[in-house]
Design goal:
Elements: E1 4-7, E2 12-13, E3 23-24, H1 28-43, E4 47-52, H2 53-69, H3 86-93, E5 97-101, E6 104-105, E7 114-116, H4 121-138
Parallel strand pairs: 1-4, 4-5
Antiparallel strand pairs: 2-3, 6-7
Helix pairs in contact: 3-4
């Protein structure tokens, strides 16, 4: 049984006030796995992650676009591992994930476009397959 579940977040902050543009937040892709690992040292298996599919999918969308736009940078200035894909996300969480928030997003993913039902069958199946591949760790 998990007594504490910590949900993954999107590595961006966006205020819909017309004054601020979206900004990146460092490290949030991997931080949750590290935080859960640290808390498990003290509290054991009672702590786990809550993998929000909408947040993971938004991370994949925005980071893929940002990495493509930064292709002009010398590769020595980029981290060695820049995989923000859904498969990598699931792999990172498979040992600590205890609950999955199975939802999607539309458009830019913010406000009413966030936490929506799946509209695309292929996208739904892709996520379901990732869950099946990690299901032994989540049970």
């Amino acid at each position: 049984m998990t007594d504490l579940g910590i949900e993954n977040v999107i590595p961006m902050e966006y205020k819909n006030d017309g004054k601020n543009s979206p900004r990146l937040c460092n490290g949030t892709f991997t931080d949750l796995v590290q935080i859960v690992g640290y808390l498990r040292e003290r509290f054991g298996e009672r702590v786990g992650s809550v993998l929000d599919i909408c947040h993971a999918a938004m991370t994949e969308k925005y980071m893929k676009a940002l990495l493509a736009a930064s292709d002009f940078l010398p590769h020595t200035d980029l981290p060695r591992h820049t995989d923000y894909g859904m498969e990598h996300y699931f792999q990172m969480h498979k040992e600590v994930c205890k609950l999955i928030h199975f939802n999607d997003f539309t458009g830019n993913g913010y406000m009413r476009n966030h936490g929506t039902p799946f509209q695309d069958q292929k996208r739904w199946m892709r996520c379901w397959n990732y869950i099946q591949n990690m299901s032994t760790a989540v049970r």
